[in-house]
Amino acid sequence: MRRLFILGLVSLSSCGDLSVLDNLEPGNELVVVTRNGPTTYYLGADEPAGFDYELVRAFAKAEDMSLRVKVAFTLEEVFETLQRGEAHVAAAGLTQSTERDQLFESTQSYLDQQPVVVYKAGQYKPRSIEDLTDLDIVIMQGSQHAIRLNLLRELNPAVRWRVLETAESSAVLSAINRGEADVALLDSGEFSMQQRLYPRVAKAFELQTTLNTVWYLGSDPRAGEWREKANDFLSAAKSDGTLKRAEQAYFGNVAYASRIESFTFQRAVRTKLPKWQPLIEKVAHEFRLDWRLLAAISYQESHWNPAAKSPTGVRGMMMLTRPTATEMGVTDRLDAEQSLHGGARFLRSLLRRLPNDIDDPDRTWMALAAYNVGMAHLEEARRLTEGNGGDPHLWQDVRQHLPALQDPAIYPQLRHGFARGEEAVTYVDNIRHYFATLQLQDIPNNGVAPPIDLTALTSTANALLRWTPLSL
């Protein structure tokens, strides 16, 4: 009923949608067209998210404009919306091509990708272009991979493929996972971001081509001027670290987890998590934590086993030591609710103890490292980071120096001595992977139905969605 109500509001608001191009001025509204997906734009637990969304939101803020998002559900629809003058910018993980450049202004590249051929592990693995002969290949509708396959077919007529009527890479990966096709051709970023959801799908090989990911601007006399503004913003985002931080937030934790770990976790999500999720959500709400983060921590600690015990004596769902349990008011470490309370309270205390100028998500990753190795050792790693020219406020920099805490050439000189820094790095990497997997699994439930213009929702609809407007 809620979705029907919202769709009714949208259809009323979208009648006679006039061109927005005349309003491309500071103080007005920047309209962006994108597509629903984990690398582009989706509705998170509390607010919109996505790599492209984060960037274009920052661009709108830099130009003193509010942001309005339109969601397209095919790549063709992205460019049709742009061509009709209903959006200023298309920011949808779009790769640059000669054909697209003939119709629209493109920005400089902000993300380099490669075309990857993927297959289902255990099935035939092609190792080169020649091995694609007579295989059933699938691609997304409207993707530039059709051009590459056409070129391949000119050399080898036995190359054939099918186009799936979707702009979601998850549908392509799902087809491979279910055995409905032999291989697929995807952008490397799309694949690496979502492989955690399809651990049986693996990379066969990369094509030796660099894909430039760009924004496209609408057909307007001033598009060239705003292209320069966008390029200035993207150049600044590269130099000041904004782009790097966004890449790390959405892609940075992908490489640290193996497919076997992903598969094991997926199975636990299906078989174990349903029993504990209500309790985890309850405790997370009490401590103002994302329940998926608490779920990821408790899986890393005990694989959701409240009776877990290590040889060193830590016990329970959150594997608390006896002193920590006592400090956090836990009287029975084997009681799942008490253990979750104790772990959540301990994490909250670590978050409070970190310097105020460390922002999220770095703040959360550093608190998790301190959960594992101790705050004193984390602070020594931060001092090592700063002393070696890194930024002690950024997790990626601190992450590089944590292993030094177990280096015999370094730790004897440290005030707090030896610590298992490498273990702390692995601990945080794993939790980031599990957390991101749980976030990705929520995306289909948080998707938006076409056609939707997000600022057209009334306050009633916003209240129903528990979501704040996109004005910046």
Helical residue percent band: 40-55%
| Multimeric status of the protein | single chain
Instruction: Output the radius of gyration.
Output: 24 Å
Shape: globular
What CATH architecture label of the largest domain applies?
Orthogonal Bundle
Total separate domains: 3
Helical region count? 19
Mean of residue pLDDT values: 82
**CA-CA gap between termini:** 30 Å
Write the CATH fold name of the largest domain: Lysozyme
Sheet bearing the most strands, described?
7 strands, mixed
Task: Report what the structure shows.
It is built from 19 helices and 14 strands. The chain is of the alpha/beta class and 472 residues long. The chain folds into 3 domains: 147 residues, D-Maltodextrin-Binding Protein, domain 2, CATH 3.40.190.10; 95 residues, D-Maltodextrin-Binding Protein, domain 2, CATH 3.40.190.10; 184 residues, Lysozyme (Orthogonal Bundle), CATH 1.10.530.10. The strands form 3 sheets. Strands 1, 4, 5, 6, 7, 13 and 14 form a 7-stranded mixed sheet that branches. The two termini are 30 Å apart.
Break the fold down into its secondary structure elements and pairings.
Blueprint: H1 2-14, E1 29-35, E2 42-43, E3 48-49, H2 51-62, E4 66-72, H3 75-83, E5 89-95, H4 98-103, E6 105-106, E7 111-113, E8 115-120, E9 136-140, H5 145-155, E10 160-164, H6 169-177, E11 183-187, H7 188-194, E12 201-206, E13 211-217, H8 223-239, H9 242-251, H10 259-271, H11 273-286, H12 291-302, H13 322-327, H14 336-353, H15 362-373, H16 375-387, H17 395-401, H18 421-442, E14 452-453, H19 459-465
